[in-house]
Amino acid sequence: MQQSAWKDPRVLVAVWAVLCGASLVATLVLEASPAPAPAPASREPGGPPGAECAAYVAEAGRQPAEAGREGREGGVLLFPRPGVGGENCRDAVRAHVAGGR
Question: 13-50: b or e for each residue (b if 16 or more CB lie within 10 Å)?
Fold first, then answer.
């Protein structure tokens, strides 16, 4: 009966050495490649919100007033939309909510 080549310790050591060598080469290639440039920010953090964020926050401010005129009580559930026109409106929404308390 013939023995399988995978059970031979020399074959296992050779396969292990090839895999280690390949991972070393891959690591060196990845470390040598330049890092991707960061995406340009659409506005300065903490700066004034863009027009689309301002419109979104203004609409959220009108909703409670409309509900009050119609005799409905309750609040507005406001989720900051990621990427409104390429902007992150999270800071503008937080400032609006914090100012309304």
Answer: eeeeeeeeeeeeeeeeeeeeeeeeeeeeeeeeeeeebb
Secondary structure letter of residue 87 according to DSSP = E
Distance between CA atoms of residues 38 and 87, nearest Å: 15
Answer whether 49's CB lies under 8 Å from 89's CB.
yes
Instruction: Give every CB contact of residue 33 below 8 A, 6+ residues apart in sequence.
Output: none
First-to-last C-alpha distance (Å) of the chain = 84
Collapse the DSSP code of 39 into the 3-class scheme (helix H, G, I; strand E, B; otherwise coil) and give the result: coil
Phi, psi angles (nearest 5°) of residue 82: -75, 130
18-51: per-residue pLDDT in tens? 999 999 999 999 999 887 776 555 545 555 667 7
